[in-house]
Input
Amino acid sequence: MAVEEVQHVEIDGGYGWVVAFGAFLANFCIAGTIKSYGLLNLMVIETFAISAAQAAVVPGLLLTISLLISPVVGALCERFTCRKVVTAGGIFCFLGFALGSLATSITHLCLTVGVLAGIGTGCATTPGILITTRYFPTRRSMVNGLVLAGNAAGGFALPPLFQYLLAELGVRGTLLVIAALCLHVVAGAALSRPIAVHEAILRRRRRRRLGAVLAEVASEFGSGLGKRPPSELRRASLRPGTHMVPVVRPGPDGQPTRLLMQVPARLRTSSLMLSTTDVTTDATSQFNDDIRRLREAEGSCAPHLYRRVRRYLDLDLLKNPLFLLVALSVFFMAAGAPYALLQMPVFGVSRGLTRAQTAEILSIVSAVDLASRLCFGWLFDQNLFRRQHAFAISQLLGGVSVLALPFVQSYAAILALFIVYSVGIGTWFVNLAPVLADHHGIDRIASTYGLVRMFHGLSTLAMPPVFGVIVDRTGDYGSQFFAIGSSMILGGVLVLVVGVTRLEKEYGTLETPPEQQPDCDE
Output
């Protein structure tokens, strides 16, 4: 193994907060618009004179395509960097909503808002989770909560704006404003600095800092400098509360290179540190993928395209019972996340609420969602209880609240149930990526998260038309919530099955005990 000069790499924060803000901005604009789409859906039904089942196709397509392309988006992030993928996503969203404002039929709306904006949504939102998860190895839940809080923040701020725009400009004018809003995603994408680039910047700063230390030592000790071991000089430049961990990264020539990485001292005992290789994996260059590619080139007769797909998308996960059970849970949970919220405006109007009241409920629910994501994201990083249990309970909580909706009529009761729903959904979203990392390792997060979102997309493709048919047959917008709530509860039960069986131990990635992790201070 080739060994080059040992270098220092600082992780877990720093510029990562700027990257997290860029991902937050993308979620604010895109996911906030999707959460508020129920207000537009009401006007679409009236403008194009269509049924509830037909109107459900547009948001169904938008969500389905955005989720189905997630595995491809993960591969694109590995190949072209998250920054370029998010930029393309913002442009696609702009084109989708801008052209949608010219639609003359529901078919045109499906092709523009459904297909084009759906592609843009997938490209704009998925990379944020991938890159921030790698910037923050010890605070994944909290940072995922901050990023996904953009969904809630957008859902809080945009409904009153959309309600005003619909009253003043109509559907077409509102779609144009949404198109302009989506261009802000491009600005946020510029903040998503690839970790490989960030590490190079940190190394340059480290060399300058080490040079200053050398100059100071030289001025004090003169010729005695050469007798001081290099390891002591490196430790002299360490920041307080940190230590060094040896890792292996691909070098400029593709050969393995030994590095020393500077990490917070508390990282050594963090349950979220899966391995020293995990925390150095970035969104544009994965050492394990390089090794897999070399092995395939040496001993595999598979076609070149197949090898390239397998490099970026771990299809072996589809043979893993643990992954399949969680993926099926996501499939059933996706029936109401966020489709139940999209149906709230038409449901509220059918129960006698005004459109202003439905917009108010959307804003309040999104504010609660924001608070729950931030609070529970921080709480789960304290390791006070198992994340797996909270993952299941949040699904059951959301499902029960949706199941009770058909029985209520008043503004207060509808608001209360949707608040409970938002707590459950917010907690579920915050835990999804960290649970996958706990099960299968951070080095496979691009594949696991992408494939799970694909299952989410399959659900949003199949379920909304079924719920629309239920509404058309019964004539009651509340009847669909029986099916939605039951599906969400079934998803929670499947996660409980994982907890009471040995699937996690047999098919998951075992965490390295803290006492077995290397100690570079010795």
Observations:
- The chain has one domain: 16-194+315-507.
- The domain at 16-194+315-507 is CATH 1.20.1250.20 (Growth Hormone; Chain: A;).
